[in-house]
């Protein structure tokens, strides 16, 4: 396996490591020979640095086994670059000191989060409470419907007239609809009423199964002819099936509450002006099919603990990740 390292692209925690050594005149701990894996121009690289790098690479290498000598080579290359930077006093410039201080603050912020979550882990009762809240939010009826979307009301009126004469809804959707579901005969699948725009949802709820709208329905996307095919009561997944997915969400909620409490008790003064930037025109791209507006218990949620950026490598190359030396 070929190892290609681009240390200049290292970001995130590699800079946090640097700030441990440089920011605010903090000196790195003395490394003894018996605690080192290599020595570079008289400076030791610690076993801890190798252990940390090994752990982080294994998490990001998608199961690839990285030889230890490759990882040590990566640490040696970094050490050489650090020595070069220090020989040119790059670590002493005001800009560098400011950046290192910011990285130190970011590291300490992350450590504060980890410390709080360790002392205040998510409990089963908190997970169950969140589960019950989300179940209550999504409980109700699901609908299966198809539609034909056209830009003009007059076109929708003509389509309804064809349906009244016995035309096949799916075939009309394939030939006349302008929406992306036309290739599926207008089929929108199963959805809850709140997942669609209000006008569309109201029309679907008012219909009986097997019936289509007798007048066109206008939404922001155009004019719809809607066929309600079926309906059913939603069956939520069991608590144990989604418990693991809910944990990161509850962790974020606990952290938000903790930060809010810190802010409430803090004395904060904003020292910059409140001038607003010039408004920028934003063009939103909307699709015909609406998407859910609230998280459900089956959503995949992100992890609470932030991770650092690493050097971008090809599949056959090691992701160089930061570590303390």
From TrEMBL:
Its EC number is 5.2.1.8. It catalyses: [protein]-peptidylproline (omega=180) = [protein]-peptidylproline (omega=0). Pfam families: Rotamase (PF00639). Gene3D superfamilies: 1.10.8.1040, 3.10.50.40. Transmembrane segments: none annotated. Keywords: Isomerase, Rotamase, Signal. InterPro entries: PPIase_dom_sf (IPR046357), PPIase_PpiC (IPR000297), PPIase_PpiC_CS (IPR023058), PrsA_foldase (IPR050245), Trigger_fact/SurA_dom_sf (IPR027304). Residues 1-23 form the signal peptide. Residues 140-230 form the PpiC domain. The keyword Signal applies. One of its GO terms (molecular function) is peptidyl-prolyl cis-trans isomerase activity. Belongs to the PpiC/parvulin rotamase family. PANTHER family: PEPTIDYL-PROLYL CIS-TRANS ISOMERASE HP_0175-RELATED, PEPTIDYLPROLYL ISOMERASE. This is peptidylprolyl isomerase.
